[in-house]
Here is the input.
Amino acid sequence: MQSRSPAETEARVSEAAPDKTLFDLSGVDFSRVVADKSAIASKNPHRGAMALLDKVVWTNADFTQGVGVKHIRDDEFWVEGHFPGSPMFPGVLMIETAAQLACYLFVARKGEPTLAVFLRIEEAAFRSRVVPGDDLIILCSEIKRNRRRFITHVQGLVGDRIAFDAQITGMSMERD
Here is the structure.
């Protein structure tokens, strides 16, 4: 199954109600790649099937907000069992994808290598199914941070639908 072109993704996402998304996406160019899998891997430790975030397409100047993309493929490890004959991207993997974007932004903002992990999920709500062939657009917006911890609001969009939103907390595992 092929993912949508950046122009198709941009057109569908721009239809999402702007008052419902974390921030305005009208200036986001979905064909631009700020960080590909390799650049993401330079900040995040995830490898293989657990490197869920395919690319980062936008960040603001201070890395407190960002937009990432996860192409939902029909050959991924969860497809066969979640659910047979009607695969649906698991909610826990949606949150994990968003946490990977949040960790990427935290490490980029910190400006030095660190192992960032997420600790807590709060106020998670799953609103729409995500299936193979979809592009899951991840939005991340910082709420609060200090040297070692961060709290972010994350949201997933598929076309004009909000697939999920949540608040996640993470921290650096490196000692100061």
